[in-house]
Amino acid sequence: MDALTEGVELSDADVALLAELAKGVTVDRVGRRLDVSGRTVRRRLRGICDRIGVDTAIEAVAWAARRQLI
């Protein structure tokens, strides 16, 4: 774990969102599954990216996979 993200914890819902994306599920479909809009999912994803210090959803998925969260 690098110094910038040491101690960062993701909620179960955050991890579930990243796991769905890792499976190739689209943001809009994730939103429908969670009964929220795709825009809400994108906003949550942006928050996850900001907390873990990455720029894209792909990087967030890779970050979670490296830490064996997904």
Automatic annotation (TrEMBL):
Recorded GO molecular functions are: DNA binding
SMART domains per record: HTH_LUXR
Task: Report the SUPFAM superfamilies cross-referenced here.
Answer: C-terminal effector domain of the bipartite response regulators
- Signal peptide residues on this chain, from the entry's feature table: none
Q: Name one GO biological process term.
A: regulation of DNA-templated transcription
Superkingdom is Bacteria
Mark the transmembrane ranges: none
- Where the record annotates domain HTH luxR-type, the positions are 7-64
Q: Which InterPro entries match?
A: Sig_transdc_resp-reg_C-effctor (IPR016032), Tscrpt_reg_LuxR_C (IPR000792), WH-like_DNA-bd_sf (IPR036388)
Q: What is this protein called?
A: Regulatory protein, luxR family
